[in-house]
Amino acid sequence: MKPVVVDHIGIAVKSIEEALKFWEATLGIKCEGVEEVQEQKVKTAFLPIKDTEVELLEATDEDSPVAKFIEKKGEGIHHIAIRVENLEEALEELKQKGVRLIDEKPRYGAGGARIAFVHPKSTGGVLLELSERN
Ligand SMILES: C[C@@H](C(=O)O)C(=O)SCCNC(=O)CCNC(=O)[C@H](O)C(C)(C)COP(=O)(O)OP(=O)(O)OC[C@H]1O[C@@H](n2cnc3c(N)ncnc32)[C@H](O)[C@@H]1OP(=O)(O)O
Ligand SMILES: [Co+2]
Predict the structure, then answer these.
(1) Residue 26: exposure state from Cβ atoms within 10 A (0-12, 13-18, ≥19)
(2) Phi, psi at 55, each rounded to 5°
């Protein structure tokens, strides 16, 4: 598996509009755009910081993973996304190593990226997203 870069840090927020008052207005990081990813039941806002991004995540449904996360743990860091060169190869390799995968097959994420999640139980408590961007 060839990790390329930390693609983004996912932060669960109750309201992107509210959160942008800090991340954009106070910190001065420009939001590049807001995009809904229906399959994941989230609305996302990406704020690029050099080679990586902050991804603000707002639930679009009460059974969204983000809604459940906030209910349980409150707002805060939700996942780390690492970009890989070849997502299928990475998933195959992790599966061989006995890593618990949430997604055995890639799904679509924001910005047309292909993504797959690794279970926190296999990573020491961090929800890990693998992403491949062409
Ligand atoms: C748009 C896209 C993109 O970037 O392009 C995205 O990011 S989509 C981002 C939103 N989509 C996702 O998150 C999809 C992947 N997430 C999932 O499939 C789910 O949220 C799971 C991670 C499997 C958790 O599922 P669920 O909430 O039903 O189970 P649960 O609450 O019982 O959690 C099982 C165990 O994992 C822990 N757990 C749950 N969510 C966690 C998180 N975000 N970080 C670290 N640990 C976490 C719980 O504390 C619990 O540990 P204990 O048993 O020790 O208490
Ligand atoms: Co993400």
Answers:
(1) exposed
(2) -115, 110
- Decide: 59 and 66 in contact? Cβ < 8 Å: yes
**Domains of the chain (ranges, CATH numbers):** 3-132 (3.10.180.10)
Q: Closest residue (by CA) to atom 42 of ligand 1?
A: 127
pLDDT single digits (tens) 25-80: 999 999 999 999 999 999 999 999 999 999 999 999 999 999 999 999 999 999 99
Q: Give the separation between CA 26 and CA 22, rounded to whole angstroms.
A: 5
| Two structure tokens written together for 96 | 């061989």
The Cα–Cα gap between 85 and 80 comes to 17
Rounded-to-integer distance, Cα 115 and Cα 104, Å: 10
Interface confidence (ipTM) of the complex? 0.98
DSSP state of 24: I
Residues with CB under 6 A from ligand 1: 10, 37, 40, 42, 44, 55, 57, 65-66, 68-69, 72, 78-79, 81, 102, 109-110, 113, 115, 117, 119-120, 125-127, 129
